[in-house]
Every structure is written in C-alpha cells, then in structure tokens.
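This section describes the prediction task in plain terms. A model, or a person checking by hand, is given the sequence of a single protein chain and must write out its three-dimensional structure as a string of tokens. No templates, partner chains or ligands are provided. The sample shown here is typical of the held-out split.
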Amino acid sequence: MSVSRLFNGFNWDLVTLSTAIFRVLYSFAGYENVNNVLDEIKDPLRTLKTIAPTTFLTIAIFYSMVNVAYSIVVPLDEIKNSEELTAGLLFERIFGPHIGGTMLPVLIALSAADTVMVMIPPM
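The expected answer:
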C-alpha cells in the first residue's frame, strides 16, 4: 500500500483538519499540571531540563504505537466507513463486541473520574 493511496477518500477541508489537530493537541492536555508539583521538587529547573524532553519523546512514541496498533488491527476501510471511534473498533476487534463495547466506556469513565479527583483540592 502506497502512502499516496493511504489518504484517498478523506475529507480535507479546513474544519476537518483543524478538528484533527485540536484533538491531537488535546491528547497532550494536562502536561501543564507539572507546574503544580514543581514546588515539591528539590531542584525544579534541573529536573525539568532533563525530564521534559524525555516525557515528550515518551508520549510521542506511545501515541505513535497506538496509531500503529489501530492500523494493524482495524482495516483502513472500516475506519473510513465507521461512525464509531477508532479505539472502539480496536477494542471490539480485540475483546469481542460485548466486552470491548463495555470496557472502553468504563475505562474512559475511570480516566475522567481520576482527572476530577486530582483537580479537587484536599480538605
């Protein structure tokens, strides 16, 4: 499969592209919360200089690995023609329609609950 054929049939208008870019950037949301814990670190400037590039690289590698998993497990035609999230298609293919259809929403809910719990200040 050539790279030029890979994106045939996709909608390339400005709204679609900007939405896609926004969703990718949103996946990095929360990285600014590092500032909340910097006062608890012994040497924050040195730590940030060494850890920040490593974490960005790690996040980029994981993000790429997830996209490779999507493309290996779920056929491109199914991704193009489905109204469902690609992660939903992946979970249904790996765990079956019943367990995969239940597991992903539960994991998303747990992730959202964790985020809310972290943002609530301690009493």
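For orientation: The helical segments are 3-6, 14-26, 34-37, 44-73, 76-81, 86-95, 97-119.
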